[in-house]
Design goal:
313 residues; mainly alpha; 16 helices; 6% strand; TPR repeat; TTC27/Emw1; Tetratricopeptide repeat protein 27; repeat
Amino acid sequence: MGWSGRVLLDYNEGTLLLQQLLEGNFKGTLLNPRIQEIFPAQVAIGEVIDNYLENQILAYLDGPSEDQAERQLVVFLLGVGSLQLFVQSNWTGPPVQIEPEDILPALIIGNFGEPQSLRVTLLNSLVLDGESIYSLVSNPFLLVLAKTILVNCRRKLHLFQMLPWWTMRCVNIQQQLLAERSPQLFSIIQGCIDEVSANNTFFSSGECRNLAIQFHLECGYALLYYYEYKKAKENFDRAQKMAKLSTTMTGALGKRTRFQEDYLAQLILDVQREDDALHQTDLMLAPTPLENLPKVALMQLYLKFDWFFNLLL
């Protein structure tokens, strides 16, 4: 999103990484040998893993100026791939089998202690404003890596116009794992929204219409979480206007379930769209193959179909 076309045309390795990312092969992106070149097998005495990651990424980005575009692209794709894989591990499924030593040199991992102590260190690095991270989170290393790139090192990735959007996404994911709302994360989210909103070319381009709608929706949900109701509504209204939809609240008599005997008044949201409004197929993603669904999601799907068929009988 917002990267230079010259980057994609000049560097085949960067193009391959981008293709893997767009195909949803996030693990393949992280395990690419080009990614592993970022982290050498040496660490300073007493250096903790989050500092090691940031120092190595900054050192990689400060490499020769003639291949700066490629270096920024590789680091950016590493950050996005890590965040996507973390979300897959903890929300969408299927489960991901990946360990820090799959990305970092094995000698480095030993310097940070046993696997359990390394996990504790990773969780502690995500603590903010005195709030601990959710202790049962899977693959916290992926979020630490994504945060290091998309938040801590974001000023170094100046080639990507939409980087603040990914920073907002990363911060929003971290917030979901904290028990309380973090003023520090909220401040970052507000700054990211302002940066993207200042990009007039993005919002005026018809080709970016779908993305602009998605951005406003994500902003609305993020602001809603922090009780910013007015600002959230403004973003939802902008998304609705760009999608050329109109909504009104109305009522009607009806039955919600097969167990309900009498018709009762129900609140209905009436949605109307203009002729050139976005059609559903424009925003539909391909369904996940059944064999790739987690067992829990698959069982819920079967139960839903069973309930639906019983309803028809």
